[in-house]
Structure to design on (345 residues):
């Protein structure tokens, strides 16, 4: 007879029940986040300055050196149409890739150890180090918020309303979460909010990085419609999968810690998260439109290639030795007929 526990669950079911019964957020202690909280404003300003310096040098010489043909094309488009939308978009995707790769590589360990591992925000990154996970994660939040603030100022005329809402929401909620951690005694859910911001930020990084790579290739390999179609189609599926996983994970975490949140955040958190999900799905819809466009261009290129093959086949066929011989013989026969019909003078 199979042993049962937890109200009739089997051993395997009991194991899963114990594994998912309580998450780490339900037992998260409301402690001090980081010793560099007082430097939050200088940090976010510093990152915005760094982004502007990087973009200035990229637009002056680096991107032109790496992509001479592509950058000349987007620059000429700006001169012709009077809008530098393509040039700014090309630069923006490069900076987005750089920032997100740096964030993933630098804070991946701290995020995993704090979110699902045995460490907390006050744990040293390495034994004997003064720097803690909280220091690294707070810096990453300011780095990410500074990036979105820079993007809003750099591409304000090109951003859609959904993107504006997404960026505004991320900046506001991230900075509020960091600011409330300065006084953990006054609020019982300060680290809960920061924990959720880390979860949402991690999903945001992972879901959007392939899209930025695809958009760069969309400009660099603009004639490779087949490759772009499959790449963009993958990105659409990837974004939808990440969004659905993020929704499920967020519902699970909020359900597991709902009684620890202050009443105001019972309304603010779902509203802000719903705006984020709407913005992500709307952006995915736009990406799907680009995907379909590349599919149409791919099929059109196939039709043009077939048509060119047919035309080249006709031309080569008309110049083949057999057809040339036949045409000569027919011309000779026609000449003979003419000679036999027409009178001799």
């Amino acid at each position: 007879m199979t042993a049962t526990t937890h109200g009739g669950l089997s051993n395997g079911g009991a194991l899963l029940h114990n594994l998912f019964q309580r998450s780490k957020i339900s037992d998260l202690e409301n402690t001090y986040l980081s010793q560099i909280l007082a430097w939050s404003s200088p940090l976010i300003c510093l990152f915005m300055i760094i982004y502007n310096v990087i973009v200035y040098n990229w637009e002056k010489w680096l991107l032109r050196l790496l992509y001479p043909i592509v950058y000349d094309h987007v620059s000429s488009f700006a001169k012709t149409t009077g809008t530098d939308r393509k040039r700014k978009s090309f630069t923006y995707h490069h900076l987005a890739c750089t920032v997100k790769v740096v964030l993933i590589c630098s804070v991946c360990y701290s995020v995993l150890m704090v979110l699902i591992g045995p460490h907390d925000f006050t744990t040293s990154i390495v034994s004997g180090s003064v720097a803690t996970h909280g220091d690294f994660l707070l810096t990453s939040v300011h780095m990410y918020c500074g990036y979105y603030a820079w993007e809003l100022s750099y591409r304000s005329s090109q951003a859609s309303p959904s993107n504006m809402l997404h960026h505004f929401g991320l900046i506001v909620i991230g900075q509020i979460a960091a600011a409330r951690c300065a006084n953990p005694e006054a609020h019982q859910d300060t680290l809960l909010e920061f924990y959720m911001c880390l979860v949402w930020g991690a999903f945001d990084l992972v879901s959007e990085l392939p899209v930025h790579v695809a958009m760069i290739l969309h400009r660099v390999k603009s004639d490779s419609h087949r490759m772009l179609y499959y790449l963009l189609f993958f990105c659409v599926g990837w974004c939808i999968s990440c969004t659905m996983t993020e929704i499920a994970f967020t519902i699970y975490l909020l359900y597991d810690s709902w009684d620890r949140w202050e009443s105001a955040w019972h309304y603010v958190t779902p509203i802000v998260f719903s705006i984020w999900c709407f913005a992500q799905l709307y952006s995915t819809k736009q990406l799907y439109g680009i995907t379909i466009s590349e599919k149409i261009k791919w099929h059109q290129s196939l039709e043009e290639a077939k048509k060119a093959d047919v035309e080249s086949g006709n031309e080569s066929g008309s110049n083949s030795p057999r057809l040339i011989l036949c045409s000569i013989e027919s011309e000779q026969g026609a000449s003979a007929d003419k000679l036999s019909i027409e009178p001799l003078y």
